[in-house]
Amino acid sequence: MPTTAHEELTLGHSPARQVMTLGEIWQTLKDYFGDGYIRNSAPFRFNVHLCETHRVAVHNENVFFGVHIDEDTMPLFGSLGETVKPPCTCEHIATVRQYIDDLVKTASIDDSYGIFSRKNEASVEETCSYAMRDSLQWWVHWHDGSVARTDYWKHLYIGIATSCDDILVPPAHLVDGTYRFLGHTASDIIAGLLSEGVDAENVRYMEMCLWRESVVQYFEKIDPKLRDLLLEKTHVMSQFHVASANTLGCAAATLAGRSVKFGGVEDEGMEMAAYGNCFSMGIAKEALGIAQGEPTEPTAGWDRNQLNAELRWMYARVMGQLDTHELVKYLRRYASSSLYFVGLNDRYLERMQGRRRRMLTPQMQALIASYTVGPSGRLEVNVVQQEATEQDKAC
Predict the structure, then answer these.
(1) Among 64, 99, 129, 242, which one has the highest count of C-beta atoms within 10 angstroms of its own C-beta?
(2) Considering the chain, what is the average pLDDT of its residues?
(3) What are phi and psi for residue 153, nearest 5 degrees?
(4) Superkingdom, according to UniProt (predicted)?
């Protein structure tokens, strides 16, 4: 009896390897995303100039989806406060793009697979297990409160994206399959999404978002000067964060869980939801006191109070814009749920409790194991720690 697409991938029959140089990956991304409204900004494409948006005068019933805190009521919360419109720094993203263009040509490849979570993991494999835990917890908030097996590859997509935040992964290794997340290559996961019936164009979009994240995350980790270009520029910091956190790709995964198609690189609602996810997380982390001092802190600079007020202004604007979009009922929960889940999810509680990993419960271990493929190509029944080889840095 022939195997299903899901079974073939589970048993380790991976799609053909895509061998590309870093320069080829970066050019592919620029060609795919294009410039948006800012010239020479690809692949940091944005369609809406937030500086020119206005406050929505009348709320509609969409405010009942997700979490809503009106701009006028933010000062009621001691951890929030007033909003302030930031100066426009949007065009500066073209400078960031040029800086990365130069890095692509000159930077040496670091394949050390360093761990950047700062939580004392013993191995890359352990970091990947926790990344899967975090991804499933996010999914519960973003989707419908469950982790159904029909969304298996969507969960793994968010998982591999999370691992690129926590681990120094060379983009070429992500693309060619040298890097594996819980035994799966990125190509396995992309093929798996297709096997779950996700629209092919939307899957391609998710793949390009993952590639873009890997490039941006890689250079952010190896070159501290890149971050210097973002500091005290709320707009450009936010544009960069959407790419580095892959909030667009994860929004697409969430929509796929509802069998909802979207408009690709030109979809303004997706853009607003991706912004909102970043902003609401930044606001919640600031409220809990775990944002300050982070290497990727969005409001680091000369006046954190001012920068946080600017962040709240942008959050209020993107949520207002999202409320006018046809997909708002699917995206508002994704855009706003960070306001409460930062206080629930283990990823952030670990930061509050001295940056030490919380033990995985037996139930967590069993669930993570169900996403893990071992050396035989078959699903593991337990979380297995394995040494990564020089030829195949795998997790």
Answers:
(1) 129
(2) 89
(3) -75, -25
(4) Eukaryota
